[in-house]
Amino acid sequence: MSVQINWRVVICICVCFTSTPVSGSELYLFGGLTSSSDGSTPGWQLSYWEDLGDQFAYSVSWINEGHLTGHHRDGPACQLWGRTNLLKGKLSLAGGVGPYLFFDTLQTGGSMYKDIEHGLAGVGSLSATWHTESGWLVQLLGNYIVAESNINTGSILLGIGYDLDKLGRPKSRSVKPRSATDGDNGVKDMDNEITVFLGGTSINASKKSQTSIATGIEYRRNIIPYLDWTIGWLYEGNMSLIRRGGLTTQFWPTKSFLDNRISLGMGLGMYVALDTRYSAGAGEDEDETLLGLITPTISYRFAGPWLVRLSWNRTVSRYDRDADVILVGIGYGF
Predict the structure, then answer these.
(1) pLDDT, tens only, 249-273
(2) 37, exposed or middle or buried, with CB in 10 Å at 0-12, 13-18, 19+?
(3) Whole-angstrom Cα distance, residue 300 to residue 298?
(4) What's the pLDDT tens digit per position in 54-66?
(5) C-alpha triplet 41, 39, 30: angle, nearest 5°
């Protein structure tokens, strides 16, 4: 099986995240029920919305469709929405469509691990959102996912969200982190960041639970407004199925709020696994070193140049060695 990160979806996510903001920005966490022809299961979704005027918006989401019979499917999606506002803006109704890059852990495979299918699907959605004066949002969301090479699903989700503009926009288009102690007129930009991480790794396709302590270090550079670049080292840990570590590099569409104290981003790039050990697998290339890497992240600058960062790394392999690496780090901006 070959790993193919569909670059149409990657470009869509980049364009969405780096578009110039027009008005509202909203962040949602959903839970609900996903159904297919073989049954139903609980699922969840995390979504970021950005307005494009009064009647249009875009969203970037991570969809997890739960554990359907023979399938455990999730991945990023990007959608364009048309919507209308009712009741003086208290209620909004919307419909959206877009691509969904999925990772499906199947029940087939060898004695130690399951097969993972990477593919592209389309997702169509309808939503109803209630807006409160305090900035909190409640959204009822329905998704229908069509995958030519995989299963089709429908889901009903209820989400709680927040209007991030209530936290305050950055005072300029730049997403560069700023010193929390500087005054409004003397803020000094910090283009660079170094972060040290500690967390855990889970092998998605393992038929037995395999986890390990993970570590990492990352250098981040703001290269243009709304776009960062990083280079780092990631060590996924030592498990019976794999031991893997190496160099990472990613580009990060980002948005900042609360005078640049809070930053959201999506990293897209490569992972060169230089320190590897794979368990034996018939007919497979045991020297796989080049992997894809997709990483949602959020950071909070809590004291001057100091920040805390949470990153969820999805490593994308050719031979069913995908892993989730969740890391928490302390960083310093300069």
Answers:
(1) 999 999 988 888 999 999 999 999 9
(2) exposed
(3) 7
(4) 899 999 999 999 9
(5) 30
Written as one letter, the residue type at 30 is F
Domains of the chain in sequence order? 7-167 (2.40.160.20), 192-333 (2.40.160.20)
Alpha carbons 325 and 334: distance in angstroms, whole number: 27
Structure tokens at 178: 């700023």
Q: Cβ distance 225 to 175 under 8 Å?
A: yes
The DSSP result for 133-184, as a single string, is TTSEEEEEEEEEEE-TTS--EEEEEEEEEEEGGGG---SSS----B-TTS-T
Query: Cβ atoms within 10 A of the Cβ of 148, count?
Result: 9
Quick one: tokens of 256? 């900042």
Rounded distance between C-alpha atoms, residue 181 and residue 169, angstroms: 18
Exposure string of 61-91, with b = 16+ CB inside 10 Å and e = fewer, is bbbbbbebeebbbbbbbbbebebeeeeeeee
Contacts of 330 (CB under 8 A, 6+ apart): 195, 196, 306, 307, 308, 309
pTM across the whole model: 0.84
